[in-house]
Design goal:
The chain has 10 helices and 11 strands. With 319 residues, it is an alpha+beta fold. A 6-stranded antiparallel β-sheet has the order 2-1-3-4-5-6. The chain has a 3-stranded antiparallel β-sheet with strand order 8-9-10. A two-stranded parallel sheet has the order 7-11. Helix 4 crosses helix 5, helix 5 crosses helix 8 and helix 6 packs across helix 10. It is globular and about 65 Å long.
């Protein structure tokens, strides 16, 4: 996959900008605050419809503007494709070859990117939600069904949490609606678990060797930590494990007023020689681990999509 051209209108500090890109390596050099990172960010937004630096589209608009637009020209093998995203006020629209794509889930995966930025070290050091977000973003680029299942899971999760609170506060004894919500949640959760576990397994196949090549020492692996017992990663077996977990913890969840089990509560750890680098690793080890993780993804993307992703490296030699 090659991005041959990127065009920006009212994005960050650019009123209008068009850049033709080399089909191999492109290096952006300039002083601080000139907009080097903004170009990388625009490619990321074009791919995933959101930024890795902010959750607010208003921050992406050039000061004084109420809109922005990003357009990219892609070459995939013998085929060419144009993708674009435009935001006017709070109305976001995405296009493929000038055709408006109604669902974001149908758009994501058309442009595959893998990003490394200095802030990525926080993925290891920070809260579990940061690590889950990373998995969700990367797997969503590979499988459109994943992002659809994940979005549906979150909608059902909110409904289930609301009903658990209602049961507790109103002393409702009829759990039939809760059972329906639980069954629907399990359907989506099992798929999410399977894709996450398989993705981590694929990462681990390359991770140790890549990390050793970068550092010349140490063994790096990732361990997925689930709050349910997963012995067999088949969809049906995961459903059974989830069903058992929910049925034996109904009262506990009702008292808590929330869903305590499922992929929204999971985590994973980066281990060097068996030690969790979130606790025992240096900042240098944590940074190299994230670089190794991102590099390990390249062959996975190529295997699944048939083409290499675009690798975005933002200030990789900082600190």
């Amino acid at each position: 996959m090659i991005l041959t051209k990127i065009s920006l209108i009212n994005f960050r500090n650019y009123s209008k900008c068009s850049i033709k890109l080399n089909d191999k390596v492109n290096i952006f050099i300039g002083n601080n605050a000139q907009g080097k990172t903004n170009i990388l960010e625009s490619i990321y937004v074009l791919a995933l419809t959101k930024s890795y630096r902010t959750s607010y589209d208003d921050f992406l608009k050039r000061k004084g503007s109420d809109s922005y637009k990003i357009k990219g020209n892609l070459k995939i093998g013998q085929y060419s494709k144009e993708v674009s995203i435009s935001v006017l006020n709070n109305d976001k629209k995405v296009f493929i070859n000038e055709t408006n794509i109604k669902k974001i889930s149908d758009y994501v995966s058309n442009l595959n990117v893998i990003l490394f930025s200095p802030e990525d070290v926080e993925t290891i050091k920070g809260a579990p939600s940061l690590r889950r977000d990373l998995l969700n973003i990367e797997i969503s680029q590979l499988y459109q069904q994943y992002i659809k299942n994940y979005n549906e899971y979150n909608k059902i999760l909110k409904m289930r949490n609301d009903y658990l609170k209602l049961i507790y506060t109103n002393s409702i004894s009829d759990y039939r609606y809760l059972d329906v919500l639980t069954d629907n949640l399990i359907e989506r959760a099992a798929y999410i678990y399977k894709e996450r576990i398989e993705f981590i397994e694929k990462i681990n196949k390359n991770l140790t060797l890549i990390y050793k090549n970068l550092t010349t020492t140490d063994n790096l692996t990732i361990i997925y930590d689930s709050n349910i017992d997963i012995i067999d990663k088949s969809i049906e077996e995961i459903k059974v494990s989830l069903k058992n977990k929910y049925s034996t913890n109904y009262n506990k969840e009702i008292m808590a007023g929330m869903t305590l089990y499922g992929p929204h509560r999971d985590d994973y750890r980066f281990l060097i020689n068996g030690n969790d680098i979130k606790i025992y690793g240096s900042q240098g080890q944590q940074k190299m681990a994230m670089i190794a993780f991102k590099l390990s993804e390249i062959s996975i993307f190529e295997e699944v999509t048939g083409t290499k992703p675009i690798l975005l490296l933002d200030d990789i030699f900082s600190k």
